[in-house]
Amino acid sequence: MRLPARRLLPATALTAASALLTGCFAGAESSTDAGADGKRIRVAMMQPPRSGLSPLSDDAFKLSRWSAAETLVKLDEEGDAQPALATKWRQSGRSWTFEIRPGVTFHDGTELTAETVVNSLTRAATASPKPRILDGVELTAKADGDKVTVTTATEDPLVPQRLSSPQLSILAAKAYRGKTVDPVGAGTGPFELTKVNGTASASLDRYEDYWGEKAKAPGIDVKFVPDGTARAAALRSGEADIVESIPVSQAAVLDQDLITEVPMPRTNTLYLNTGKGAFKDASLRAAAREAIDAEAIVKGVYEGRADVAEGLLGPALPWAAELRGPVTRAAEAGKPNGEAITIGTYTDRSEMPEVAATLQQQLQKAGFKVKLDVREYTNIESDALSGRFDAFVLSRATVLDSGDPAAYLYSDFATDGTFNLSQFADKGVDKALKKASESKVGDARRKAIIEAEAAVLTQDAAVPMLHERVIQGDAPAVVDAAHDPRERELVTVDTYVK
């Protein structure tokens, strides 16, 4: 959503950073090369490529955001599967058969066929490590005419959603000639990746033979700018047209008409250790929940640029609020009486230590004695998973790569969940989570997911505090840039610069 304009603060904080990007796009075609439908689009992105833009890594989301690579399936706003490179599909037990879209060519001029689809999926399924979307999933693909049959080891209602992950993008055979995957000139999207300059920049041109509607912009020029202040300066100075992930601290000094805040499927949650220590007592878990003032955290730490949580799933999944009802708590709040607790969190996300400090004050006011343990995530994760803390503050993605939150709920709150920070074990919750995981995609599954969420909240195994937003900057001349909560789209066929 685009927030109303606020008073513009002095821009002195941006002056130094502006120098970092002076000439950032100098010499780029974007400054002079206007096509019939507009200029090339200059994009400042936060993270540089980590794996040479291999689609088998998180770099895949960059290819997707540039509309350079496509998948068999895409997701609508509700998270339901829609046709992309596959036109239709059907399930038969453990197997799903997909009909491949005819008339599609890769950027190298070769044709999209069932065999090329199988090649891409097989490379992903046999990769080491596997793409995250296939973690724990055994998948094989077989071609039959213009169809591809995908089979999993166990029946999986989420196969189409899994195949929507950018990590399962379909690329031309030439992309797989070496040990690594090279996406340059190998996608099917409306923009062709033509050049990658390491971790500094990338260039894309409109692909004139695209199977769908032709892109309105003639191309995209990308700069990777990890410094958030510098990215904000690029928007303020007019050196970039679209800017990713503007820090909260910089958002206030920008023209608010240029900012769009997009709700993220990410929840800042306080996980309470139900296995041992103070929070093994359900009444003390309830006391902690009642002591937390999430609105104060949103206003103080996030400067109002986040949403107070009503549940574990936030506004990025609009159906959750529509289905959610009141939660009946299992225990009344008890009295802490100076009970000592340790809260852990990490420094990798700049807001986390400040959130923990605010929680410390709130819980101490309620009667707890609170100690904080704050480290880098890699140095604290194993202790958190082993139950070394009474509570842990985590910013948690709630839909992972499939667009479906059932996997997150199971991972975090099932007795055998692999990310069970709360050391939580409850047969009733396990039953609700199993039902949600096995339900067919659609209304029934969404209803089961909300029932599972309620089962977790009833026991106060975790206290959802807020849902984060990502702040995107669009210059005044930008038309129809995507604002995608899943961060799969940014520049589409409809995006251009006037």
UniProtKB/TrEMBL annotation:
Keyword Hydrolase recorded: no
One MF term in the entry's GO annotations: peptide transmembrane transporter activity
Keywords: Signal
Domain Solute-binding protein family positions: 82-417
GO terms classed as biological process: peptide transport
Membrane-traversing stretches: none
Pfam families hit by this protein: SBP_bac_5
Gene Ontology cellular component list: ATP-binding cassette (ABC) transporter complex; periplasmic space
Keyword Signal: yes
Signal peptide annotation: 1-28
Stated name of the protein: Putative Extracellular solute-binding protein family 5
Organism from which the protein derives: Streptomyces viridochromogenes Tue57
